[in-house]
Write a structure and sequence with these properties.
Blueprint (H helix, E strand, L loop, with lengths): L2 H6 L2 H4 L10 H8 L10 E4 L5 H4 L10 E5 L2 H10 L4 E4 L24 E6 L8 H13 L1 E11 L7 H8 L4 H11 L4 E5 L3 E4 L15 E5 L1 H7 L4 E3 L8 E6 L1
Parallel strand pairs: 1-2, 1-4, 2-3, 4-5
Antiparallel strand pairs: 5-10, 6-7, 6-8, 9-10
Length: 249
């Protein structure tokens, strides 16, 4: 997901926000959760940007019980104007791509409620393995008993996901073939700056001052089942590249 460019990139890149493919998020999770009754449910959209779930046509989440938390301030401000009854929380945690000025290791804030459902679309596709575990543990504690955490991940080998990502960086075909071959058998891998591949590793980035550093992480289904025993893993929906991991409290 190149969404960081839509808020922190060039003027031309930021102008593309209205064309960004954010639609379908609610429909995606509604299907993965087997069409629950959303009435009165407290929902946390973790990494929800400008309220991507509420923006989806047919969303059945009430703004009054919707909480959106994101490391980017600007989209939260946009969402607050559009849905003033919803709850908008800036989470000033460091992320090398989305919030390089943030605070490293900052815990998820207590928002004064426990949630029935916590949803995270394309969040742990941009964090290290260790950070994913830390944040998942913290999110679990924010759930009500019986609540569900649902988050997405991208399998590098599913439907040529990794190759498609590398092709979007306009690498020469020879480089793409070499990197894809290098990734064969990987349980997870990281792509830094769209071209630097790290196999079974979080990778590294040397230039912290770079404005729009991209950091994309891919996890196989087998890897996620090992990392989160007891979780339910569901395949992507048509039109989506991301699998879904369901963890119930």
């Amino acid at each position: 997901m190149g969404e960081v460019y839509l808020w922190r990139g060039s003027a031309e890149q930021r102008a593309r926000r209205s064309l960004a493919g954010k639609w379908g998020r609610f429909a995606y999770f509604n299907h993965q959760l087997d069409y629950p009754n959303w009435r009165g449910k407290f929902v946390l959209d973790f990494g929800g940007n400008e309220g991507n779930l509420l923006l989806d046509y047919g969303c059945m989440i009430s703004p009054e019980t919707y909480y959106c938390l994101d490391v980017l301030k600007q989209p939260l401000q946009v969402g607050r104007k559009r849905f003033p009854m919803a709850h908008w929380v800036h989470y000033n945690r460091y992320n090398c791509s989305f919030n390089p000025e943030g605070i490293r290791g900052l815990s998820i804030p207590d928002m004064g409620v426990k949630f029935d459902v916590i949803l995270a679309y394309s969040v742990f596709t941009h964090t290290t393995r260790e950070e994913m575990h830390i944040l998942v543990d913290e999110l679990r504690r924010q759930l009500r008993p019986g609540g569900t955490l649902a988050f997405t991940f991208i399998d590098p080998h599913w439907a040529h996901n990794l190759r498609r990502r590398l092709e979007r960086t306009n690498l020469r075909n020879g480089n793409i073939d070499r990197l894809v071959a290098q990734s064969r058998g990987a349980q997870y891998c990281t792509v830094v700056n769209g071209s630097e591949l790290y196999v079974n590793s979080d990778g590294a980035w040397s230039n912290e001052t770079k404005t729009c550093l991209t950091y994309d992480v891919y996890h196989t289904v087998r890897f996620m089942r090992r990392e989160f025993p007891g979780a339910v893993i569901r395949p992507p929906l048509e039109g989506h590249a991301q699998q879904c991991c369901l963890i119930r409290r």
